[in-house]
Amino acid sequence: MLSRVVCYSLSVACLLSSLGAAHADGPADNRPEQVRPIPPKGIKIDPNTLDALALRCKSIRTQWQTLLGQQTTTKEKSPSARVRSLESEVLVFPRAIELAIEFEQFYKAGDADLAAKLLDEAARRLQVVGLGGNWHQVVGLSDKQDQQLLVGGFRSGIDQSIQPYSVVIPPGFAAHDARPRRLDLWFHGRGEKLSEVSFLSNQSRNAGQYTPRDTFVLHPYGRYSNAFKFAGEIDVLEALQYIESRLPVDRRKISARGFSMGGAACWQFATHYSDRWFAANPGAGFSETPGFLHSFQQEPVRKTAPQFQKTLWQLYDCPVWASNLTNCPTVAYSGEIDRQKQAADVMEATLREKGIELVHVIGPNTAHKIHPDSKIEIESRMEELARTSPNRMPDRVEFTTVTLRYHKMHWLDVQGLEQHWIPATVSAEVHDSTLTVSTKNINRLRFAFPPGHWPGHARNRVQVTIDGTKLSGPLVSSDRSWEWELSRYDGAWKPASPRQITRKRPGLQGPIDDAFMNSFLFVLPTGSSDDPIVQDWVTSESEHARTHWRKHFRGDIQQKEDHDLTAQDIASCNLILFGDPTSNSFLKKIEEQLPVRWNQEEIIIGNQTVPRRGHVPVMIFPNPLNPDRYVVINSGFTFREYDYLNNARQTPKLPDWALIDIRRGATSQLPGKVKAAGFFNETWEP
User: Fold this and answer.
1) What torsion do the CA atoms of 572, 651, 502, 684 make, to the nearest 10 degrees?
2) Residues 6+ apart with CB under 8 A from 236
3) Which one, of 125, 123, 103, lies nearest residue 225 by Cα?
4) Distance between CA atoms of residues 417 and 537, nearest Å
């Protein structure tokens, strides 16, 4: 039977009749007082075996340090750039084993043997580096021109951890072939037992669901089981950038694809980064929070979630971003009797309201897998989309956003909003020497056509009509580039002048979780709070934040004590400050420049007040000593253990600021009882 391209909704009965693939889904995981540990603990491994693995990891690290010393040039007194650039490709393996030992993530009797084989590969790579090998030789990319499965690692800019990736090399590609090729991103499904050891071992043997002709397929790890959100999202972008620096990727022909949890990630990347892909192919997964949790988890979050959390659902919920798919051809897939068909049904209905008919390939009588006939049809469509992908920027662009975390679409760059978390839209079209623009909820907008990409007439000044205001812009440059930035004052658009006040802008817009999508540093207090309740909570909560960053986002903790901060730390990192002005000396230093006040009796943010005893503020704010970076007070990433059980729950749980009653301690959902919470306005005022 051929698969069908149809658009319809399954009945509730049919939705509930099919079983989900992930153990984490179901009403049994709706009890915050009884949360299963994620990742789960594995089987018992002979301690002698673990000791031997740990010793080999240590040996490889020692040998690497020795090699660095041997490769240090006399003139520069530092290792050569070649050696440094290959470090992550060697050390990704001992790091994977060390994490598996730390979190007891050996789940089968043969997993220790797999770990040993990974260390064999690390030893081989170490030897190749020492002999002067290049990247191709180190990762094992040969000239045999058969399909090749490569695994390796890159260093993350967030926390300097080494994160794994894998890439499928198509037949016909030789090590030094320079011809650009298509690349497909493939987002894997949920795997509570998918440790780095499992990922690297599996990917070195398994090419995956799709291996299109003449196409690289990049499999990012995504920092464990988070649906490629937050640090997992940055992991994808960094992995892609790393592979683009190593292989001849045709940047005009990159697609986003995935299934199950990976399908959810695909919807997210397709709607938030629509201009980066020639096409998107989401399968199953989820596309928004409340509807999915209601139908799949029987969890009534529409009734139970506070309003600020509902507002924050928009960060990753795709319907509000759906119109961006006008910039990205999309081929969705669902099994006919898969409960996760709900994701595409929601997007289909939303897109139809916007005048877009979603191509929805449905596997007949299929649960949570890809039907073989559907796979053939999807590949045919994707191949044709790759073949016809345009070679230049479009004349017309439409863009929707609710936050300046996502601010660009092709040559449009939104630099300011009237108000965050309300949909902001811009539609713009070039014709000859004119640019016609209409906006909503936007007060600063940049046009940026790189060299060779101005699509209109290349002579005379560009005439811009924006929301009815007519302006004469600069000339198109001789290399066919063109840039101009406008801002709206008192309802009128004008050429933008430098910002005079601190405003929310791209990369500096909150909420709290945004600080953990760039380089950050935990800053721990060396003093003591005058409230023992606060002192105990700060000790516990800072440890929780650091432990769970490593456990859930698989990071390497960067931390310092308050008195050890340097000017370089302030310049380069978001600072995660724990404590209060009596315990944290850096917090004391900037206290007067923050929108929170501590007095003898109270803590005050705006017009909200709580008693000082037994309460703490949690907040994100531009660092007064470096307004290009954040300070965060008393918080790690804001979702917690309960939310690990279903990826759709992994949304921000606190906004820009909150006042927390900590007298009863933290729970699996929150750091304490939220007494007040809210968003700063566009000038960072409460």
Assistant:
1) -130
2) 185, 187, 220, 222, 228, 265, 269
3) 103
4) 37
* Cα–Cα dist 528/287, whole Å: 45
| 331-340 core/surface letters (b: 16 or more CB in 10 A; e: else) | bbbbbbbbbb
Residue 654 CA to residue 678 CA, distance in Å, equals 8
SS3 262: helix
Query: At 612, is the secondary structure helix, strand, or coil?
Result: coil
Per-residue model confidence (pLDDT) at position 493: 98
Query: Are residues 549 and 557 in contact, defined by beta-carbon separation less than 8 angstroms?
Result: yes
Contact by Cβ (8 Å): 1, 364: yes
**Residue 232 — left, alpha, or beta (φ > 0 → left; ψ -120 to 50 → alpha)?**
alpha
318 backbone dihedrals φ, ψ, rounded to 5°: -80, -25
Q: Which amino acid is at 656?
A: D
Distance CA 22, CA 187 (A): 15
In this structure, the number of other CB atoms found within 10 A of the CB of residue 46 comes to: 9
Q: Which pLDDT score, from 0 to 100, does residue 15 have? A: 31
Alpha-carbon distance of 555 to 174, in angstroms, equals 34
Residue 602 dihedral angles phi and psi, to the nearest 5°: -140, 165
Intervals of the chain under pLDDT 50: 1-22
The residue behind tokens 């759906």 is 322
The first and second tokens of residue 187, run together, are 């987002």
Question: Shortest CA distance to 586 belongs to which of 570, 599, 571?
Answer: 570
Rounded Cα gap, residues 424 and 225, in angstroms = 31
- Tokens 């990742």 sit on residue: 39
Please say whether the beta carbons of 582 and 527 come within 8 A: yes
451-501 tens-digit pLDDT? 999 998 888 899 999 999 999 999 999 999 999 999 999 889 999 999 878
In the numeric block, the tokens 């979190």 are attached to 103
Q: Name the residue with tokens 């207090």.
A: 525
- Is 661 strand, coil or helix? strand
Distances (CA, A) of 119 to 84, 98, 197, 222: 19, 11, 10, 22
Beta bridge partners of 163: 154
Contact 254, 240 (CB under 8 A): yes
The predicted pLDDT at position 254 comes to 98
**What local confidence, expressed as pLDDT, does residue 8 receive?**
30
328: its two tokens: 């990205």
Rounded to two decimals, what is the model's pTM?
Answer: 0.95
Tens-digit pLDDT profile for residues 95-114: 999 999 999 999 999 999 99
Note the pLDDT of residue 71.
Answer: 75
What are the backbone angles phi and psi of residue 625, rounded to the nearest 5°?
A: -90, -5
Q: 7: how many CB neighbours lie within 10 A of its CB?
A: 17
Cα(258)–Cα(456) distance, integer angstroms: 36
Partners of residue 89 on adjacent β-strands? none
Q: Which residues contact 409 (CB under 8 A, 6 or more apart)?
A: 274, 275, 324, 327, 397, 398, 399
Q: Do residues 519 and 574 make contact, with C-beta atoms less than 8 angstroms apart?
A: yes
Taking each helix axis from N to C end, the angle separating 342-353 and 261-272, rounded to the nearest 10 degrees, works out to 20
Q: Long-range CB contacts (< 8 A, 24+ apart) of 105-108?
A: 105/39, 105/41, 105/42, 105/193, 105/195, 105/197, 105/198, 106/42, 106/43, 106/45, 106/197, 107/40, 107/42, 107/43, 107/193, 107/198, 108/43
> CA 579 → CA 88, 461, 616, distances in Å?
35, 56, 8
Task: Please give the C-alpha separations between residue 446 and each of 75, 398, 414, 496, 506, in angstroms, as whole numbers.
Answer: 45, 14, 6, 9, 12
Q: Domains plus CATH for the chain? A: 1-20+287-390 (no CATH), 408-495 (no CATH), 512-678 (3.30.379)
